[in-house]
Amino acid sequence: QVQLVESGGGLVQPGGSLRLSCAASGTIFMLYAMGWYRQAPGKERELVAGITAGGSPNYADSVKGRFTISRDNAKNTVYLQMNSLGPEDTAVYYCALHRSRTVTMVPNYWGQGTQVTVSS
């Protein structure tokens, strides 16, 4: 059974940084693409960043230059480093696994989510 467990969310001041982690189990992690999504109150869930099985990243325009996605296949973990955070980044952040080498339209598995709140 595939499980994804996020950690690292919390409250941060505008301009601050956070690093989210997502540990995967129950699957051959290195074979699959991973994504970080977020959902703000009243808004649809959106893809923030994705990373292919080969390690190639892609980003939503709203986070380019501020967020970095990476993966450590030895630890079955994907990370999201978030810098220069603003109130618009406040959301529940979810990691997801795509049973494909690239990010597809619909992930196959979701984590439980971790809250990120950017506020002074």
Describe the structure.
- A hairpin with a 4-residue loop joins strand 7 and strand 8 (about 75-80).
- The protein is about 0% helix and about 50% strand.
- The chain has strands at about 5, 10, 20-25, 35-40, 45-50, 55-60, 65-70, 75-80, 90-100, 110, 115-120.
- It starts with a strand and ends with a strand.
- The chain is mainly beta and about 120 residues long.
- Strands 2, 4, 5, 6, 9, 10 and 11 form a seven-stranded mixed beta sheet that branches. Strands 1-3-8-7 form a four-stranded antiparallel beta sheet, with no helix packed on it.
- The model has no long low-confidence stretch (mean pLDDT about 95).
H/E series, N to C?
A: EEEEEEEEEEE
* Strand composition percent: over 45%
Q: Identify the quaternary structure here.
A: single chain
**What is the terminal-to-terminal distance?**
40 Å
Radius of gyration: 13 Å
Unreliable residue stretches: none
Helix content: under 10%
Shape field: globular
Q: How many strands appear in the DSSP assignment?
A: 11
Number of helices: 0
Mean pLDDT comes to 96
Short précis:
With 120 residues, the chain is mainly β. It is built from no helices and eleven strands.
What's the structural blueprint in terms of helices and strands?
Blueprint: E1 3-7, E2 10-12, E3 18-25, E4 33-39, E5 46-51, E6 57-59, E7 67-72, E8 77-82, E9 91-98, E10 109-110, E11 114-118
